[in-house]
């Protein structure tokens, strides 16, 4: 969503990076470019005005003049102020000491209330809670059935009845106590636009439930209209937070950057994809870092920890360093990688990734092509790719639906990767012993250490990395263009 804005910031900071001193004219030009970039991203005008003013106050003061590197200090100031505009800190949901904790979901039709109710239930369940989904959207055909289908996927019960939304909400309180559920998530009806009937209905449901949290589900693709919708709902319900959906879309992202300052309520959660587990706590500092092209290492680590078993990861790393890593191990690692989400999203979390790499669209189906090639090999071929000759290569290509050259490329690149990683883990060779031969003309043998004392020394890491990167410059996924 923020790719265009990230590219703009890359250009802005690139022009001042490396300058030993910034003149007042440099600062003014940088602030002007930042203001234009934010306005083009559909950020609310008043939000842009306040953000730029705060940056200016800090940039023309002692904070910048005392900095050893003024251009880096400008980036730091922008990062901190952008984080503040997004909410400062992540919203923490605390559960009621006397269950159930009640969550009311509101929003317009099509914003994703039903799906995100299920996603929130999944998140709470992963935290050890026992949620109950309540279908109080009796206006939209099949809304309750959709919720039941999602609940069945999560093994979370769904309560509803063919009466009226307020009665459903009242009965849900008794149902939660009967089932011993400690969280209630109530999905309500929406409209195509805000009207009195919608507001009155959701207000009555709120009165009955007396929710601990009221979340407004907002479609980030709607731009500044999303901020207006949030203001109107907040005036009726006193919102506690916003759930921003379709954060993986291609909209300009102005709603995400505006809603906190305009409405005064934080973004609590963000939906980053269509899958039920593509839903996460919203961290303002992490998003600000990604917008400025600095990556998001914290989220990347969390995703890796959730996808990878620690023992399996250590075993794979050891095999890599020892040079015993096989194509079977590589296949297993790709399957683990796919659990972390779309590859393009992961690239966006890595700091220092060039724009040209970020802009390359890597789809799961391209990873699937690599899997297809490996799965078309025999067990022996996966363990020893050197045995793959012309006839075997043709058979593998036919079995995977790829071309023989794709098979050759994968095998050669895999060998180069093994070679590079083995160099990283290489211990020094055993030193020659002084004194020549022992008695009887044979070299003497002694027990004990075979390496020098202290930690094993590696080859020059920089030289190894450079050699490895040169050998991997041709790395590409099947189906991607060469350039």
Query: Which CATH class of the largest domain?
Result: Alpha Beta
Task: Return residue spans where pLDDT drops below 50 for at least 5 consecutive residues.
Answer: 426-477, 479-483
What structural class is derived from the secondary structure elements? alpha/beta
Summed up, the domain count is 3
Question: Looking at this structure, what is the CATH superfamily of the largest domain?
Answer: P-loop containing nucleotide triphosphate hydrolases
Order of helices and strands: HHHHHEHEHEHEHEHEHEEHHHHHHHHHHH
Mean pLDDT: 77
Major β-sheet profile? 8 strands, mixed
Number of strands: 8
Residue share in helix = 40-55%
What is the end-to-end distance?
A: 24 Å
CATH architecture of the largest domain: 3-Layer(aba) Sandwich
CATH topology of the largest domain: Rossmann fold
Evaluate the radius of gyration: 29 Å
User: Can you count the helices?
Assistant: 22
Shape: flat
Which percent range describes the beta-strand content?
A: 5-15%
Strand order of the largest sheet: 3-2-4-1-5-6-7-8
């Amino acid at each position: 969503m923020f790719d265009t804005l990230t590219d703009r910031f890359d250009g802005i900071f690139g022009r001042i990076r490396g300058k030993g001193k910034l003149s007042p004219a440099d600062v003014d030009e940088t602030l002007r470019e930042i203001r234009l970039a934010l306005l083009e991203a559909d950020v609310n005008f008043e939000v842009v005005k306040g953000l730029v003013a705060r940056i200016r106050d800090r940039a023309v003061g002692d904070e910048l003049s005392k900095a050893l590197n003024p251009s880096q200090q400008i980036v730091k100031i922008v990062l901190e102020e952008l984080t503040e505009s997004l909410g400062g800190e992540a919203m923490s949901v605390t559960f009621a000491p006397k269950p159930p904790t009640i969550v009311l979901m509101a929003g317009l039709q099509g914003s994703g209330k039903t799906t995100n109710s299920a996603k929130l239930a999944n998140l709470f369940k992963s935290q050890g809670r026992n949620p109950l989904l309540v279908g109080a959207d009796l206006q939209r055909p099949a809304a309750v059935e959709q919720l039941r289908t999602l609940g069945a996927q999560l093994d979370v019960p769904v309560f509803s009845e063919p009466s009226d939304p307020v009665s459903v909400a009242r009965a849900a309180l008794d149902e939660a106590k009967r089932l011993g559920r400690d969280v209630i998530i109530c999905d309500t009806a929406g409209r195509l636009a805000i009207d009195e009937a919608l507001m009155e209905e959701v207000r009555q449901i709120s009165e009955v439930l007396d929710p601990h949290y009221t979340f407004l589900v907002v479609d980030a693709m709607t731009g500044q209209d999303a901020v207006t919708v949030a203001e109107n709902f907040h005036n009726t319900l006193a919102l506690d937070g916003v759930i921003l959906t379709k954060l993986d879309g291609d909209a300009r992202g102005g709603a995400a950057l505006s809603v906190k300052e305009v409405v005064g309520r934080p973004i609590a959660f963000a939906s980053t994809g269509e899958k039920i587990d593509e839903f996460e706590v919203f961290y303002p500092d992490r998003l600000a870092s990604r917008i400025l092209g600095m990556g998001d290492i914290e989220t990347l680590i969390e995703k890796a920890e959730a996808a990878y078993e620690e023992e399996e990861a250590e075993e794979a790393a050891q095999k890599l360093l020892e040079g015993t890593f096989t194509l079977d191990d590589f296949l297993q690692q790709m399957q683990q990688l796919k659990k972390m989400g779309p590859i393009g999203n992961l690239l966006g979390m890595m700091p220092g990734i060039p724009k040209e790499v970020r802009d390359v669209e890597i789809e799961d189906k391209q990873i699937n092509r690599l899997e297809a090639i490996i799965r078309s090999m025999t067990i022996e071929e996966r363990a020893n790719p050197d045995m793959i000759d012309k006839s075997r290569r043709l058979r593998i290509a036919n079995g995977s639906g790829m071309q023989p050259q794709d098979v050759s490329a994968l095998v050669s690149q895999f060998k180069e990767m093994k070679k590079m990683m083995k160099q990283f883990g290489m211990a020094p060779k055993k030193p020659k012993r002084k004194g020549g031969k022992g008695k009887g003309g044979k070299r003497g043998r002694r027990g004990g250490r075979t390496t020098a004392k202290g930690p094993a020394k590696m080859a020059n890491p920089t030289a190894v990395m450079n050699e490895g990167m040169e050998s991997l410059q041709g790395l590409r996924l099947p189906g991607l263009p060469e350039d």
